[in-house]
Amino acid sequence: MLSRFRERLSLPLIAAPMFLVSGVELVVAACRNGVIGSFPTVNCREAEQLDQWLAEIENRLQCHSDASGKAAAPICANLIVHRSNARLQQDLDMLLRHRPEMVITSVGSPAPVLEPLHDVGALVFADVASIRHAERAIEAGADGLVLLTAGAGGQTGWLNPFVFVRAVRAFFAGPIVLAGGISDGHALRAAEALGCDLAYMGTKFIATRESMADARYKAMLVASNADHVLLTTAFTGLQTNMLRPSIEAAGLDPDNLPQRGAIDIGKDIDIGARESRPKRWRDIWSAGHSVSGVTDVLAVDDLVARTAEEYRAAL
Questions:
Q1: 263-293: per-residue pLDDT in tens?
Q2: N or C: which end of the chain has fewer CB within 10 A?
Q3: Do the Cβ atoms of 313 and 186 come closer than 8 Å?
């Protein structure tokens, strides 16, 4: 199933879709380096901007080939399919217009978007955090699964990756992506040994020159390690890994956070609503356990080259 673009990959890696971080520059740089470049469609303020982003990414990658003549890796959009995402249909319509090779669905069942995306030739991978969710996504017709495991940055899973991957492999022969804890090429090779076809790398891509993250956020990632990551439901209502230093900088006590009310994904992903919050609350940042591997802020070129060297060394 992945054979249609496997030869265009330098590594079995996806630059993970990260809210308010993944943008045009990061996606283009990843794809040019043979890594699948992904971004949440809600990083665009409206569907019209999504159209502009996709067109720009496509135009910049259209004539690209590396030194060996290999075309750029695929672009992968991430759709938030939760019922409270008022923009879902608009964003879906825009993706159908651009006919992406791969789409990842998050925070809900992929069922409502599978048929139209399949009709334009897209592979649809479902983001899942439990064995039951994996079973339901397969029953719905998802082409692949992204297993959200303990240690992933932002919204995270709770299952150990060794257990989760092997349990899913017992009943699913299709493509599996491991999300959580991929800090270098050695971890990437280990994910393959477990039975994964691809893996997410998120936190290390936040600390790249091409990401849209605030410079202070990148510096905090360099200065932090896994002990600085806090698992909490206080900010989104979902289990989320956040950076303790950013919580403290906002004037909050990480060990005594207020309880979050009902989950409202629609409000949380609305950029305008987030910008209306007090600035100190907007600067509370997420990270995965792989933050221990972030030692400097690199260009994507250098991050991918370093990861490829580690991947080869892991043999």
A1: 555 555 555 555 555 555 578 999 999 999 9
A2: C
A3: yes
pLDDT reading at 219 higher than 70: yes
For position 254, what pLDDT does the model report? 93
pTM of the model: 0.92
Q: How far is it, in rounded angstroms, from Cα 185 to Cα 11?
A: 9
| Nearest by Cα to 209 from 287, 296, 146, 129 | 296
Q: How large is the average pLDDT for residues 296-314? A: 98
Helix axes 185-194, 161-169, angle to 10 degrees: 40
- 239 forms beta bridges with none
d(CA 188, CA 179): 10
pLDDT at 237 over 90: no
Phi then psi for 8, rounded to 5 degrees?
-90, 0
The larger pLDDT score, comparing residue 64 to residue 270, is at 64
CA 278, CA 293: separation in Å to the nearest integer? 31
Question: Given the DSSP bridges, would you call strands 154-155 and 144-148 parallel, antiparallel or unpaired?
Answer: unpaired
- First vs last Cα of the chain: how many Å apart? 25
- Helical packing angle, 88-98 and 111-119, nearest 10°: 20
Residues 6+ apart with CB under 8 A from 309: 185
CA gap 243, 232 in Å, rounded: 10
* CA-derived radius of gyration, the chain: 18
